[in-house]
Amino acid sequence: MIKVVSVTKRFGDVSALEDIDFEVEEGEFVFIMGPSGAGKTTIIKLLLRELIPDKGQIYFDKVDITKLREKEIPSFRQKIGVVFQDFKLLAERTVRENVEVPLAVIGIPQSEWKGRVDTILELVGLSKRSEMFPSQLSGGELQRVSLARALIVNPKLIMADEPTGNLDWDTSQAIVELFEKINKEGKTVLMATHNRAIVDKLKKRVILLKDGKVVKPKPKQEEAQ
Amino acid sequence: MNIHLKTALDYIRRTPFQALAATFVLAITFFVVSVLSILVYSSGQLLRHFETRPQVIAFLKDEATSEQIAALQTKLTRDSRVKNVTYITKEQALAIYKEATADNPLLSELVSPSIFPASLEFSLNDLSFAQAVIDETKKEGVVESVGFTANLGTENSLNDVVSRLRQLTFYIRVGGGALALVLAGTSFLVLVVIIGMRMTTRRGEVEILDLIGATPGFIRSPIVIEALVYALVGVLVGWLLTLLLTLYATPSLVSYFGEIPILPKTTGGILGLFGIILAAELFTGLALALLGSLLAVSRVRAR
Known about the structure:
heterodimer, A: alpha/beta, Rossmann fold, six-stranded mixed sheet, four-stranded antiparallel sheet, 8 helices, B: alpha+beta, Alpha-Beta Plaits, 2 domains, 10 helices, 4 strands, elongated
């Protein structure tokens, strides 16, 4: 589904990513892991076509997204659900309205919205919070709204950039379990995180980044030494 | 309700003073434009009245035969500069005199039809032809003298009347047009500033919508709708104020200008005139709003 080929991205003299290669198959759950500054967010931004690599190609469903024209970007992004560390919710819209926005963006008839939104809010456990505003919700609830918004248009791929970065351990676990549940239902999940505990708990494939390069994950014993 | 319209109305509700400022400026602009449109219409009607009513009267000699009169009438009728040629007999002239002096019967009793000359009355397609036509008519053998019915204020020649009316109409059109342009420009700038401010405060929202795949059109729509709402309300308020003002002033205007039809005489006519003004203003207002909002959006997004 995703193929990243020899991608390099620099910001001025700073090299954010250096000759990165990896693939993600359809239905997989993959972590992009690494410390702060390793290049996780840059990869997410490249995959969302927020940034263009200086070198290399990025394929999504065999289409090189680095070559997309400006007007093709919205329809490409509509195929992906994205969850952000800072939630990126519309502060002046209710939970329901936030989740409805992607439906309006892709042009789903308004008559279908209520049923779809109710189903998704039920899935993320926010049925009773549907008329509340983001300012009235906890961090975990905000992230659930963000996940509901990502899922509402039934995308093939869910990308999450540090979705547990602002959450406590219990809430993080609950959110990650939701991602796992979604993955089991057939969605591809690509999650960037620096939280080793979460990665260890789920035992999924990990792409480990260090200083902008992909490194082979060390066995746990070796790492402990 | 459509999500874009709902979003636009939410923006308006959240910033009532910005909305009021935009609507107020647009309402003033379209009020002035409506008043100027009525002035342009009325001055045009005034000019047309003086250009087309029977202004030239060729008084005929008593000895003129009916064949000679008919020949002159035919000649004038065929003249492309002349229209509405009417032959007034001595008896008709007396009847007109009696009607004009009806409140003083003594005056009409003292006269007989013989003292009134028969005449040919006609009007002109354009007042600039007047002097030449009058000079030519004076040279006709059956014509005793030529008189003018057009007279305005202290002017006593047709050329003075024409030049004064033309000057008046010119000032109204050019001055009014310039004023309307300045006001329209101000409204445009106010819209650009307010929409620009809206876009700046919405920067975070625009970024989020961008990331979830919203097209530029989707992002622009509520902003453009908001500007269209301002323009629509501004046009309707300005237009309605002018309509009410005109209806209020119509009796005084009609009594002052008398037979000169500076405004349509029927309710249907007035509504028709105002309908045309409303249509033109809606078109202009919506075009201003559309251009202003698109310019503001593109400028903010380019930054």
